[in-house]
Amino acid sequence: MSSRPLLLFPTPDTTSPSSRNGGGGAPNYPTVTRQAERLGPKFSRLESALENRRIEIQCDTPGIDPEYTVVIETYGSVSDFFKAVKKIEGLEWLGEHELRGLEPDDDFYSSGSDRDKLLNGQVMLMLSDRRAIDELLSLWRNYGRDPDMQFMRGWAKFRDLFRLLKDIRYWDTQDRLRNTGILEYWQERLEFEPNVPVRFEAELWFRTNESKRNIASDNVSRLTRELGGQVISTCCLPDINYQSLLLELPADQVDSILNQDDVSLIRCDQVMLFRPLGQMSVEPLWNDDEPISVVEEPEEIYDLTSTEFERKPRVALFDGLPLTNHSDLRGSLIIDDPDGFEADYLAQYRVHGTAMASLIVNGDLTDGGSKLTTPLYVRPIMKPDPRTFNNAETLPDNELPLDIIHRAVRRIFEGDGAELPVAPSIKVINLSIGDPNIHFNGQMSPFARLLDWLSSKYNVLFVVSSGNHPKAVKVPQSGNTFHEFTDDVKAVEFFKAVQNDSWNRKLLSPAESVNAVTVGSLHSDESSPMLRAGLYDIYSEEMPAAYSGQGSGYARSVKPDISMPGGRMLYNEAIGHSNLTAVSNYAAPGQQVAHPHASAFNYRVYIRGTSNSAALTSRGCAEVCDVLESLFVESDKLGQFEQYSPLLLKSLITHGASWGAMYDRISNCLGNSDSKSLKNVITRNIGYGKPDVDRAKFCLDTRATIIGYGNLDNNEAHVYKLPIPEGLGGADIWRRLTVTLSWFAKPCPAHMKYRDSALWFTVEGDNRHLTSRSSSSADWMQVRRGTLQHEIFEGEELAVITEDRMLEIKVNCKENASKIIEPIRYGLAITLEVAEGVDMQLYQEIQEVIEEQIQEQERAQSREQVPTR
Prior knowledge:
CATH architecture of the largest domain: 3-Layer(aba) Sandwich
Distance between the termini: 54 Å
Number of strands: 35
């Protein structure tokens, strides 16, 4: 069947939005008397902790009026509590985030039929002086004595807080150190280099007042110098509520901290967290643990203003430095290295950047696909670390990671200093790195917030990997028992074991970014290896890769967004014990990529990981971008292409995604699981599923894809009218409607709602019953919680079509966490199809009606422009 070009919708009608629906209710909560019993000791401990800390501060720095960070946790949520905080002088709102997986008890439990259901809650953080705390305590005591007391106007949120309050406490030293990986990092550094100073990050509580930020930074700097340390660099990004210092301390001072000595820096109330530095490196999913032979890379000069490339780059790769003279990459890369990483980057260590560039430019080399038609812009952000085994590629330790990424993106679109932007044509940025110390559990990481802000500010799509978890899989059986299972039973037990360990296999920062397309991995590739004895290739068919980071995303949104092949991981047979360990080498199976070698510039190896999946997605975006550019140029709409292509790429790369046969395979693994639980597991593992990129590039006689785009303000909606072919009326023909909507939300990091705007589509009109939601797709409420809504509707029953033969898809917009300052851009893709082989010119009928609609709009515009006499 011949391919047909994508279509463009005419300008949509503007109207008011539909109802959002959905949302859960508050949990059952105890009486005020019972709350007083529960919370009395907690308030007492808070008072005691603050008093003790006040005395410590007065002894260290007499005359200073201390401020403390207070943590408030609730069952359920108290919306807009930040407004009530302003009523108490001395309280400063710092932020809030989601609290997941709370066990119900006799006091708090679900108001639905399932009383044992896990609850969600809220964490609120406030900075307070002692007077403000006293006023809060007084308010609590008065409420406890008189539950019917009348709260002053604007104060009623405190009553809601007291009803749902789970805990209230002081943010102390343990909070700054716990679950950040810093203690393990310090221990490791001292064991490896016991006399070398240690560098790490101190993230401060972000203050909206600049002078208070400066005071906090100066105080932390002073405490660091008093310990014989120094501040290496600083980074402050007010748009994402981020202020951090890169510190260096002598080894003996770090040892004192580990020995729990009283170190003033660790007790500093202006510090939120201490984090390891330079941990965003390449996970060893494909390392032979063999010495790498020296490779000579001829020196090259890269001129970004050169006219060597006929077309401008559309995709950027932030990664390690690639081997530019490899035969699979030569002539395809633009290297921009303003930090001079190349000088210390021996060619034999250019492993990860070479692999990622190879996948983006060529795809899996086993497939023999064609190279991209546009060059790949590469900005090195990693380099070899001589302190690690085999000089692993990692972010440098003389600058904070967020500063590196921020500078790199700003250079693309604004330039450095007086320089012009170096690659403003970029639409997609590939980031195949993740922080193994920051697993997403409800709170947006600074890195994810940065990507959300950058995508909104510069109108660029980030493609990020969900993160690798190469740890062993612990099955409940002994190794011998597992070995005796059939292949099908092995697959079932293996999958269930991975799901039971999902808490330790979460998304790695910045994969929770709401604006990015986050890509998970499938246990899949095109290689044909001969397996030796003692190895398991667990799945015989496409399934979620065990190493792939699992969702969900912020506010339980769909994450990862999609999943792509990442290479099959083999596992060693367990002898006696129950741990199946992954095999890490450069042999098949896996995806074939370019690789450094001492004697050849055409050497290739096989690799696997979520980095691969992200790179293949970026390649798909580049291919779709070519199609979009041609479509918009032919329609004389190049300006609209520049404005909307990042969002249209986000929609189109997802548009062909579905769970396919994996729905039944996962269902078989889980057994008698209810539909909601099954969908949750599938979405957590593969998001919207595996995309068919070709569906985003062309149509068929029986399949039409139409593109829409526009801007919406608060309380506005656009209505798109999709023509229904005459043959679908009164016929029991199978048909499918796929709708994908995307936008970039501006992040509001101090608020739990986080997104400044909420967009969603609804299928409306008299013909909306032509199709209904597919049972094998994500939950209809979950798909509206992020910035990418993708739904599939199907039908085959006889349908009565109204005379106008139009199906209405409405794109709605409302403000969410803040007021919408500028209209929100969006990208929309809609596909209507029937089965191949059906005798229906579906594409032609839709095309003719849409062309007629466009011509009518053009005639109407011409009439409006004719001057009257």
